[in-house]
């Protein structure tokens, strides 16, 4: 019994010793496994950090690329709105910079025009068909400037004809779509619908991304010079009118329309020069209606503008073409510079009855800013146009025609739809235009 007990005890001790040995092995194995797990985890974390760092770097590059792409897109949009604007760095790449400016006559809209543009099925006004023949001449130049002879006071006020114009907003949309960048709004019809109509006109132009100059909603607006940056060249655009058809300028808002006043004009020209404008363009609403000859007042004012630093004068209001001149202007310090003036561009659009009011031009100036900052007007050209009215159709009667192209197509038999009467009118108007605009 005791031996058995002793044997059991011995066996028990042997068993405990065995268990102890087994436990030690397990413990060692467990520790090895734990160490391996720790080692693997440590290596994994390191690898993750390296990969994560690389990913972050790639992400940063990716973001940079996206930002660059975004900036490029934004630049394209900005260029379209700001007339091919480029940075000063880009400007310094070339010794000289050449660009083009297009100028248009008065944008008028008689009731016959907006009724023709009305679509009964949609209840909308669409003027786009009017400009399909001449869009390349307005869209391709770096900067296109027109003159506004109507208001956009809103449908609620009621669209109206002469003597107080109010036109559908969609006319602005069509002007923007053909590349008009700036509209001179100082004109005798600026207050046709009062200050509220003037203000809303500005709002509509802003909404359609067309810059404007000559009418203002505040004193601050009037005191701010409009600049357009074309290929890095800083162009100041000014605008003034002889009056507002007897409609009084509000006494508490004397700033709302820029009137022709020599002291005021000189102060704005000086401001533009002090703000380092490379080129100063002045839009003048002046002259005698329906006269092809500039008045003595126009000529005196032209001399005044050039002597005070204006480079280009774009005239409007007479509703007919007047001559143009390229000048060599001698300044007070004895230096000389190029100057250009067209006394009146006629009507770009309108439905006036006199045939001479239906023909005009799209003017094109090629200008270079040289390395020494000297500005030269290298070339002056124009495209003769005619506001055609096709009385044989019920809608879409109006179209601004490229006169020379239309004559050529008629003579070649490509398009004879204008008929012989209009063909003869176009030939007569082409001769008239060339005679008036023979460059002096």
Question: Nutshell version of this structure?
Answer:
With 440 residues, the protein is of the alpha/beta class. It contains 11 helices and 16 strands.
Explain what this protein looks like in three dimensions.
It is a single chain. This protein is α/β, with parallel strands linked by helices. The model is unreliable at 1-22 and 45-93 (pLDDT under 50). The protein has helices at 2-81, 88-93, 111-116, 135-139, 170-177, 194-207, 219-223, 262-274, 296-307, 403-411, 419-436, and strands spanning 97-107, 118-119, 124-125, 143-148, 182-184, 211-213, 226-230, 233-241, 279-285, 312-316, 324-330, 336-342, 347-349, 359-369, 375-389, 398-402. The longest helix is centred in the first third of the chain and has 80 residues, at 2-81. The strands form 3 sheets. Strands 1, 4, 5, 6, 13, 14, 15 and 16 form an 8-stranded mixed beta sheet that branches. The chain has a 6-stranded mixed beta sheet with strand order 7-8-9-10-12-11, covered by helices on one side. It has one domain (82-436): Purple Acid Phosphatase, chain A, domain 2 (4-Layer Sandwich).
Please count the helical segments: 11
Q: Which structural category fits the helices and strands?
A: alpha/beta
As a whole number of angstroms, the C-alpha radius of gyration is 37 Å
Helix and strand run: HHEHEEHEHEHEHEEHEHEEEEEEEHH
* Uncertain residue segments: 1-22, 45-93
Which CATH class?
A: Alpha Beta
Strand content: 15-25%
Largest sheet: 8 strands, mixed
CATH superfamily: Metallo-dependent phosphatases
Gross morphology is globular
């Amino acid at each position: 019994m005791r031996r058995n007990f002793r044997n059991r005890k011995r066996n028990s001790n042997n068993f405990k010793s065995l268990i102890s040995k087994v436990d030690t092995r397990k413990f060692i194995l467990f520790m090895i496994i734990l160490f391996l797990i720790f080692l693997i985890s440590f290596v994994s974390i390191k690898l993750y950090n390296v990969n994560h760092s690389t990913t972050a770097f790639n992400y940063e590059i990716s973001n940079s690329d996206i930002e660059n792409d975004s900036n490029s897109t934004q630049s394209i949009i900005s260029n379209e709105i700001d007339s091919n604007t480029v940075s000063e760095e880009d400007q310094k790449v070339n010794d000289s910079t050449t660009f083009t400016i297009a100028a248009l006559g008065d944008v008028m809209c008689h009731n016959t025009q907006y009724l023709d543009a009305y679509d009964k099925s949609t209840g909308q006004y669409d003027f786009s068909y009017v400009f399909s023949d001449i869009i390349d001449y307005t869209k391709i130049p770096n900067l296109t400037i027109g003159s506004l002879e109507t208001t956009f006071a809103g449908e609620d006020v009621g669209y109206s004809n002469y003597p107080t114009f109010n036109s559908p907003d969609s006319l602005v949309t069509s002007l923007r779509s053909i590349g008009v960048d700036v509209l001179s709004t100082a004109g005798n019809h600026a207050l046709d619908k009062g200050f509220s109509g003037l203000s809303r006109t500005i709002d509509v132009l802003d909404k359609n991304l067309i810059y404007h100059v000559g009418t203002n909603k505040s004193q601050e607006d009037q005191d701010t010079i409009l600049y357009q940056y074309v290929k890095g060249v800083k162009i100041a655009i000014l605008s003034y009118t002889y009056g507002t058809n007897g409609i009084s300028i509000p006494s508490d808002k004397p700033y709302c329309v820029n009137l022709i006043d020599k002291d005021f004009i000189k102060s704005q020209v000086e401001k533009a020069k002090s703000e380092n404008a490379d080129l100063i363009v002045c839009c003048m609403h002046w002259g005698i209606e329906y006269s092809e000859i500039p008045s003595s007042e126009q000529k005196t004012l032209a001399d005044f503008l050039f002597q005070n630093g204006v480079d280009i004068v774009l005239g409007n209001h007479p509703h007919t073409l007047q001559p143009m001149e390229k000048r060599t202007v001698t300044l007070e310090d004895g230096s000389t510079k190029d100057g250009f003036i067209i006394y009146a561009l006629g009507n770009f659009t309108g439905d006036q009855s006199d045939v001479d009011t239906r023909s005009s031009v799209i003017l094109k100036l090629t200008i270079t800013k040289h390395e020494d900052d000297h500005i030269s007007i290298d070339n002056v050209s124009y495209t003769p146009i005619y506001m055609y009215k096709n009385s044989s159709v019920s809608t879409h009667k109006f179209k601004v025609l490229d006169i020379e192209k239309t004559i050529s197509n008629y003579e070649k038999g490509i398009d004879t739809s204008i008929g012989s009467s209009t063909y003869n009118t176009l030939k007569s108007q082409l001769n008239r235009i060339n005679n008036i605009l023979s460059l002096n």
